[in-house]
Amino acid sequence: MKKTFGRGIALAFLLVLLLRPYSAVAAPIGRPISNILEAEHRVTQPSVPGPGSGTGGPFLPPVIAPSVTGIIDETGGIVGFEDGSAALQAPPNAVLERVTVTLAPVTEVTQPTTGMVMIAGKVFEITAETEDGELVTQFSEPIALTFTLTEEELEEAEVNLEDLRVFYWDEKAGAWIALPTRVDPETGTVTAVTDQFTVFAVMAKPDMPALSDIEGHWGEKDILRLVSLGVVGGYEDGTFRPEAGITRQEFAKMVVLAAGLEPDAEPELTFADSDEIAEWARGYVSAAVRAGIITGVGDNRFAPTDPVTRAQAATMIMRSLGEVETSLELTFEDAESIPECSRTR
Questions:
Q1: pTM score
Q2: Which of 86, 118, 156, 254 is the most exposed place for a label (fewest CB within 10 A)?
Q3: What CA–CA distance (Å, rounded) separates 116 from 125?
Q4: What is the 3-state secondary structure (H, E, C) of the chain?
Q5: Helix (H, G, I), strand (E, B) or coil at 335
Q6: Rg of the chain, C-alpha, whole Å
Q7: Are 135 and 128 a contacting pair, CB within 8 Å?
Q8: What contacts 52, CB < 8 A, 6 or more positions away?
Q9: 8 A C-beta contact, residue 118 and residue 158
Q10: CA distance 209 to 96
Q11: Phi, psi (5° rounding) for residue 165?
Q12: Which pLDDT band, with edges at 50, 70 and 90, does 160 fall under?
């Protein structure tokens, strides 16, 4: 019997495809994020049109004092503003040596993308530096970021506390990526965890699905990344159903979007069961076939509503990456059950 897997695992497969072009995000400890820091703590991001603008210009929000600096080491530590507006807490073993952490407010920030609402004063660049002056961008343990918001700040932005998330700026993807966020109405705080330092912002994104069933799921961070990039979404009832199965046509759409391809405006499908492919999926399946990412299951069938298997998903991802490994010896106990077409791709 073919083994299917849930939507959460499917997204982990997709991240192999997404993270490869954005390897700077997954830089090892001590590796600096290129082009993110300039003189006097100015942040350089790709050109982003502002509200009502045409093509837009370089997005160069200056970091203005006051900033706050503190020390964290192998035992952990807390660095934050005295008024509690922003703070980070590092657990023990988050860093392997003593580092200096700086939280610097970024001001004069225009709304970076359509549909996102920024909170004034709640954009920070967080950096860490070793005693040798080397930037640290990745950490061994998740670090908690906590932001406190006042009623005045919420009223000015015309948002509710419950609608806020913490986002980080992904330089390579050129996008704001949502982090797993917890809101505490009693304290007026918004908290997220991260294992890297970059630019963070507390924002609301009204059109981003709430996904009521992913909190605490092992794949929550990955799901939010793909949702932020527009690769996946939720169901009409506001759920994501991370453990539910995923069909071949659903996965075809995800792979096409993750690979940066566009759905075919005039799909050309020659499968014997092409009529069974949903209307919303036809352009994506056609694009995937044309790109050589996906084929049928035999007898010239595509089987659009069949659950995608691990082997099929792995094959699609490797084809998307353009990589073929012909000499790999499989040592899994169930290796004999892996289809031949999935053994070398």
A1: 0.69
A2: 156
A3: 19
A4: CCCECEHHHHHHHHHHHHHCCCHHHHCCCCCCCCCCCCHHHECCECCCCCCCCCCCCCECCEECCCCEEEEEECCEEEEECCCCCEEEEECCCCCCCCEEEEEEEECCCCCCCCCCEEEEEEEEEEEEEECCCCECCEEEEEEEEEEECCHHHHHHHCCCHHHEEEEEEECCCCEEEECCEEEECCCCEEEEEEEECCEEEEEECCCCCCCCCCCCCCCHHHHHHHHHCCCCCCCCCCCCCCCCECEHHHHHHHHHHHCCCCCCCCCCCCCCCHHHCCHHHHHHHHHHHHCCCCCCCCCCCCCCCCECEHHHHHHHHHHHHCCCCCCCCCCCCCHHHCCHHHHCC
A5: helix
A6: 22
A7: yes
A8: none
A9: no
A10: 37
A11: -135, 160
A12: very high
Cα(35)–Cα(43) distance, rounded to whole angstroms? 8
Does 66 sit behind a cis peptide bond, omega within 30 degrees of 0 on the bond before it?
Answer: yes
Any idea which fold 31-208 has? Chondroitinase Ac; Chain A, domain 3 (2.60.220)
Single out the residue of 304, 296, 294 nearest to residue 255, CA to CA.
294
Distance linking the first and last C-alpha atoms of the chain? 21
Q: How confident is the model at residue 35 (pLDDT cuts 50, 70, 90)?
A: very low
Provide φ and ψ at 245, rounded to 5°.
-70, 165
Tokens of 298: 């035999």
User: Residue 245: which region, alpha, beta or left (left: phi > 0; alpha: psi -120 to 50)?
Assistant: beta
The per-residue pLDDT for range 191-219, each reduced to its tens digit, is 999 998 889 999 999 888 888 899 998 88
Please give the helix or strand (H or E) that residue 121 lies within, else none. Answer: strand 117-130
Distances (CA, A) of 51 to 62, 114, 116: 19, 7, 10
Q: State the pairing for strand pair 117-130/99-105.
A: antiparallel
Return d(Cα 182, Cα 191) in angstroms, integer.
5
The domain limits of the chain are 7-16+236-343, 31-208
Question: What does the pLDDT look like over 68-97, one tens digit per residue?
Answer: 999 999 999 999 999 889 999 999 999 989
In sign, the C-alpha dihedral spanning 219, 222, 228, 233 is negative
Asked if residues 154 and 161 have their Cβ atoms less than 8 Å apart, the reply is yes
